[in-house]
């Protein structure tokens, strides 16, 4: 296993007033939705503004300190954090999972952001910052697919390892399961990746919504890669070194990605088999009611 790297950087607006609550065990939980737009030049040369809304969480005493800063909806913030994977048993049966941002740092900004109102009563920042860098191991052999329009797409699952020492000094370990989508030239360049290969991925964190076969609304957060580097198999003990293949970069922007419907192009094979029609991106102007998930859906 490669030694994991897991970094998220966001600059955006708080979409609506954040909340401080406490779990049944008394742990403080500060949650805010940070929202912005990525200005991307697409494969067709056109500039697009792609909205994103990411739930950011702070736990424990730092959550209370953050709440004392009295940030409110519309405030501009900078977030430094990590991707955090969680799963739980859904009340209707089966497993549910989500990826959110665990903030290590959240700072207000002395700037008046360009705010864009959405239909759900929230706001987002125009021209935000949305960047992810992770190192992990490929969890299954990816399959290169093509959309009806002829665009190559490669969906890979990454296992990103996190280790730390608890208060008793005991080593703890957690694996974060992250979905990554590669498009066009980048997808074709990385089609020979195999299960277990360590890779470095740089990209943007994106929202995706779809309706499953039972008609239930679902959403997910994944990384849309703009650069991928295959690392050597011995990358777990020292500084990771790129293979002789060198860096694989995506020259075509994600903005021009086609909608993925019916067959779940770009999704992991197991997820594609269990979903119905799927949008290529979350139309956040439908409102914030269904994204992020409601609090009662989250395990604490």
From TrEMBL:
<feature type="compositionally biased region" description="Acidic residues">
    <location>
        <begin position="286"/>
        <end position="300"/>
    </location>
</feature>
<keyword id="KW-0238">DNA-binding</keyword>
<comment type="function">
    <text>Plays an important role in DNA replication, recombination and repair. Binds to ssDNA and to an array of partner proteins to recruit them to their sites of action during DNA metabolism.</text>
</comment>
<protein>
    <recommendedName>
        <fullName>Single-stranded DNA-binding protein</fullName>
    </recommendedName>
</protein>
<keyword id="KW-0227">DNA damage</keyword>
<keyword id="KW-0234">DNA repair</keyword>
<dbReference type="InterPro" id="IPR000424">
    <property type="entry name" value="Primosome_PriB/ssb"/>
</dbReference>
<keyword id="KW-0235">DNA replication</keyword>
<dbReference type="InterPro" id="IPR011344">
    <property type="entry name" value="ssDNA-bd"/>
</dbReference>
<feature type="compositionally biased region" description="Polar residues">
    <location>
        <begin position="240"/>
        <end position="277"/>
    </location>
</feature>
<dbReference type="InterPro" id="IPR012340">
    <property type="entry name" value="NA-bd_OB-fold"/>
</dbReference>
<dbReference type="Pfam" id="PF00436">
    <property type="entry name" value="SSB"/>
</dbReference>
<feature type="region of interest" description="Disordered">
    <location>
        <begin position="230"/>
        <end position="300"/>
    </location>
</feature>
<keyword id="KW-0233">DNA recombination</keyword>
<feature type="short sequence motif" description="Important for interaction with partner proteins">
    <location>
        <begin position="295"/>
        <end position="300"/>
    </location>
</feature>
<dbReference type="GO" id="GO:0003677">
    <property type="term" value="F:DNA binding"/>
</dbReference>
């Amino acid at each position: 296993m490669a030694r994991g790297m897991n970094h998220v950087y966001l600059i955006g607006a708080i979409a609506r007033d954040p909340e401080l609550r406490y779990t049944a065990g008394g742990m403080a939980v500060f949650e805010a939705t940070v929202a912005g737009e990525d200005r991307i030049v697409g494969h067709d040369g056109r500039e697009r503004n792609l909205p994103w809304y990411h739930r950011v969480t702070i736990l424990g005493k730092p959550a209370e300190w953050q709440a004392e800063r009295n940030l409110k909806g519309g405030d501009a913030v900078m977030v430094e954090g990590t991707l955090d994977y969680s799963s739980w048993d859904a009340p209707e049966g089966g497993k549910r999972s989500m990826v959110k941002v665990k903030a290590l740092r959240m700072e207000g900004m002395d700037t008046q952001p360009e705010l864009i109102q959405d239909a759900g009563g929230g706001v987002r920042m125009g021209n935000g910052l949305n960047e992810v860098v992770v190192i992990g191991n490929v969890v299954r052999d990816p399959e290169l697919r093509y959309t009806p329009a002829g665009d190559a797409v490669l969906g890979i699952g990454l296992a990103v390892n996190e280790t730390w020492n608890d208060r008793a000094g005991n080593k703890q370990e957690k694996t974060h399961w992250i979905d990554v989508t590669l498009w066009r030239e980048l997808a074709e360049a990385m089609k020979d990746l195999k299960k277990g290969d360590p890779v470095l991925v740089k990209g943007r964190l994106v929202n995706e919504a779809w309706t499953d076969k039972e008609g239930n609304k679902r959403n997910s957060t994944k990384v849309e890669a703009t650069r991928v580097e295959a690392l050597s198999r011995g990358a777990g003990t020292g500084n990771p070194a790129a293979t002789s293949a060198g860096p694989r970069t995506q020259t075509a922007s994600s903005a021009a990605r086609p909608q993925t419907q019916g067959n779940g192009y770009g999704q992991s094979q197991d997820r594609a088999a269990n979903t119905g029609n799927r949008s290529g991106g979350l139309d956040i102007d439908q409102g914030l009611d269904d994204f992020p998930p409601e609090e009662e859906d989250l395990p604490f």
